[in-house]
C-alpha cells in the first residue's frame, strides 16, 4: 500500500480549499505526551517517499521531516501526561489533534483524520481514514512530523531523567524501561494510570505502609 493524494483531491472536488491531514503518535508509551501534527500540502509540492512513519527508518523520517517543513503548512501540538490522566489516552489524542488543526497558520476548512473516529467538538468538516498514514499523503506526512517531534522530545527528556532509555525506547515499555521503573521509580513524565506504572506505584506504597 502506497499513500496517494486521492483523499485530498476528493475533498477539493467537493469545494474544500485547505485540506489538512492529521495524525498522532504516542498512545502506547508509559511516559511522555501524546503528539499530533496537521499538514496542508499544495499539490505538486509533495516530497517523494512519504509513508506511514512506522515503515520508515529514523534517517528517512528526519530527511522527510525537513522536506515536509520546507513545503507544507504544519502545526504540531501535544496533550500532556496530566491531560492523559485527566481524560483518557483516546480523548487526549483527540485534544492534541484539534490543537494541531487550530494552530495552522492557514485555517483548514477540511480535515483527513487517521483512524476510525473523529475528535468531538471538531470545528470543521472532517473524514476519518482507517490506516490513513499508509493511504493518504497528508496523513503520512503528519505521522512523520509527529513522530519526529515526539522522538526528539523524548531524547531531550532522557537527558533530564537518565537510566530509563527514553532516547531509544521513546517511553514505550521496553524490558530496560521496565527494569528502570523498578530500580529508579516513577518520574513526573510517567503515565501513572497506565497499568505497568500503576502496579509499580502500588508495590511501592505497600512497601512504605
From TrEMBL:
Cofactor binding, note field: Manganese or magnesium. Binds 1 divalent metal ion per monomer in the absence of substrate. May bind a second metal ion after substrate binding.
The UniProt record lists the keyword Kinase: no
Cofactors that this protein relies on: Mg(2+); Mn(2+)
Family in the record: Belongs to the RNase HII family.
Name listed for the protein in its UniProt record: Ribonuclease HII
Keywords: Cytoplasm, Endonuclease, Hydrolase, Manganese, Metal-binding, Nuclease
Main location class: cytoplasm
Function: Endonuclease that specifically degrades the RNA of RNA-DNA hybrids.
Gene from which the chain derives: rnhB
Domain RNase H type-2 intervals: 17-206
Reaction catalyzed: Endonucleolytic cleavage to 5'-phosphomonoester
Organism: Sulfitobacter profundi
EC number(s) on file: 3.1.26.4
CDD domains: RNase_HII_bacteria_HII_like
InterPro entries the record matches: RNase_HII, RNase_HII/HIII, RNase_HII/HIII_dom, RNaseH-like_sf, RNaseH_sf
Amino acid at each position: 500500500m502506497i499513500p496517494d493524494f486521492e483523499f485530498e483531491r476528493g475533498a477539493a472536488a467537493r469545494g474544500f480549499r485547505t485540506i489538512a491531514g492529521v495524525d498522532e503518535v504516542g498512545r502506547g508509551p508509559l511516559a511522555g505526551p501524546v503528539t499530533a501534527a496537521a499538514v496542508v500540502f499544495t499539490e505538486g509540492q509533495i516530497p517523494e517517499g512519504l509513508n506511514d512513519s512506522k515503515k520508515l527508518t529514523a534517517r528517512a523520517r528526519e530527511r522527510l521531516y525537513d522536506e515536509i517543513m520546507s513545503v507544507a503548512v504544519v502545526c504540531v501540538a501535544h496533550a500532556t501526561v496530566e491531560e492523559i490522566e485527566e481524560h483518557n489516552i483516546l480523548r487526549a489524542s483527540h485534544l492534541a489533534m484539534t490543537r494541531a488543526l487550530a494552530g495552522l497558520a492557514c485555517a483548514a476548512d477540511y480535515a483527513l483524520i487517521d483512524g476510525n473516529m473523529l475528535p468531538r467538538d471538531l470545528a470543521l468538516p472532517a473524514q476519518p481514514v482507517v490506516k490513513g498514514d499508509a493511504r493518504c499523503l497528508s496523513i503520512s506526512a503528519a505521522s512523520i512530523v509527529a513522530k519526529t517531534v515526539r522522538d526528539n522530545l523524548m531524547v531531550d527528556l532522557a537527558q533530564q531523567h537518565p537510566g530509563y532509555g527514553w532516547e531509544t525506547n521513546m517511553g514505550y515499555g521496553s524490558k530496560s524501561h521496565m527494569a528502570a521503573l523498578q530500580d529508579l521509580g516513577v518520574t513526573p513524565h510517567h503515565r501513572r494510570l497506565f497499568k505497568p506504572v500503576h502496579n509499580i506505584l502500588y508495590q511501592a506504597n505497600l512497601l512504605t505502609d
